[in-house]
Design goal:
single chain; 342 residues; alpha+beta; eight-stranded mixed beta sheet; 8 helices; globular; FBPtase; FBPase_N; fructose 1,6-bisphosphate 1-phosphatase activity
Length: 342
């Protein structure tokens, strides 16, 4: 059998292990376990039996909780990722959207993983794309002498500027893994015939301008004045880019972001809705490494210091020039909830 590198096909593990992007061995091992978990999740998402997976009575977020009420596949996906991280031998702590507190895994694991195991799971019954999001930090060795719960939390609340790797997996017509190790962003597509993620774009470059914005327009009249003016302006082609923008909204964060990376523009949720630790930080790292920007409407996401695990905030991701124009309107954060459920 011919070597896949000789044939021009490079797998994810070959790319990070042999292609000179300076990824240390432990991180390669960890990534291998994460990709395995995501392949299992991809199979579950596509299964005709997934509506009966993991059904439990009485599952839901506690009253007043910052977490979404979990759905069955969320729980199963969370267990798959946790199991893979445990088996890797490389992870000290995992912080997940599905757990109230971080889970301490190993005293000598060199890495910390934050994750949203199955973003957009409410869309599964309609076969709308979903995704997995993850970020990887180094364990803060200076905290090793603290009590387990305290060091688990502090390791999980690192600023996004300390990320060493991040990625998302899009479960759609193709299963695509997009990742960064701090030297550009790459995409890999799952080859179902071999079970390998194959390199399909070694260097994503988000266009400096797009012509698409992605947001829930049904909430237009709840938005702050600045955001309404920005959307009105670009829809009419009266902004700094003299073309009329189009709206494209899937209501699946990973899917909306992936399209934005490919075509440019802005994907946004102006409400205090998306989570800083395991959604905004990893995705902003990927976008910045592709030449774009992640913002809360005023500040660079990766410069923010998390203060709690499930902290929510507005999130704007996209092309650099589009983001600069958006931020110039200032009043784009919807801080007042008009009464609907977050």
């Amino acid at each position: 059998m011919n070597n896949p590198i000789d044939d021009g096909f490079v797998t994810l593990i070959e790319y990070v292990g042999k292609r000179g992007i300076n990824v240390e061995d432990g991180l390669v091992v960890l990534l291998d376990h994460i990709q395995y978990a995501c392949k299992r999740i991809a199979t579950l998402v596509a299964s005709p039996f997934n509506s009966s997976l993991g059904k439990q009575e009485g599952i839901g977020a506690a009253a007043g909780s910052d977490r979404d009420a979990p759905k069955p596949l969320d729980i199963v996906s969370n267990e798959i990722i946790l199991s893979s991280l445990q088996k890797s031998g490389k992870v000290a702590v995992m912080a997940s959207e599905e757990n109230d507190a971080p889970i301490w895994i190993s005293d000598d694991g060199p890495y910390v993983v934050v994750t949203d195991p199955l973003d957009g799971s409410r869309n599964i019954d309609a076969s709308i794309p979903t995704g997995t999001i993850f970020g990887i930090y180094k364990r803060l060795e200076e905290l090793d002498d603290l009590p387990t719960e305290e060091k688990a939390m502090l390791n999980s609340l690192q600023s996004g500027s300390r990320l060493v790797a991040a990625g998302y997996v899009l479960y759609s017509s193709a299963t695509i893994l997009c990742t960064t190790f701090g030297s550009g962003s790459q995409t890999f597509t799952l080859d179902h015939s071999t079970g390998d993620f194959i390199l399909t774009n070694p260097s994503i470059e988000i266009p400096r301008r797009g012509q698409i914005y992605s947001v829930n327009d049904a909430r237009y009249f709840d938005w702050p004045e600045g955001l309404r003016r920005y959307i009105d302006t670009i829809r009419q082609g009266k902004g700094k880019y003299p073309k009329k923008y189009s709206a494209r909204y899937i209501c699946s964060l990973v899917a909306d972001l992936h399209r934005t990376l490919m075509y440019g523009g802005v994907a946004m949720n102006p409400r205090d809705h998306l989570r800083l630790v395991y959604e905004a930080n990893p995705l902003s790292f990927i976008v910045e490494q592709a030449g774009g920007r992640g913002s809360d409407g005023k500040n660079r996401i990766l410069s923010l210091q998390p203060v709690k695990l499930h902290q929510r905030l507005p999130l704007f991701l996209g092309s650099l020039e589009d983001m600069e124009e958006l931020e110039s309107y200032d009043d784009v954060q919807q801080r007042v909830n008009p009464g609907y459920e977050v």
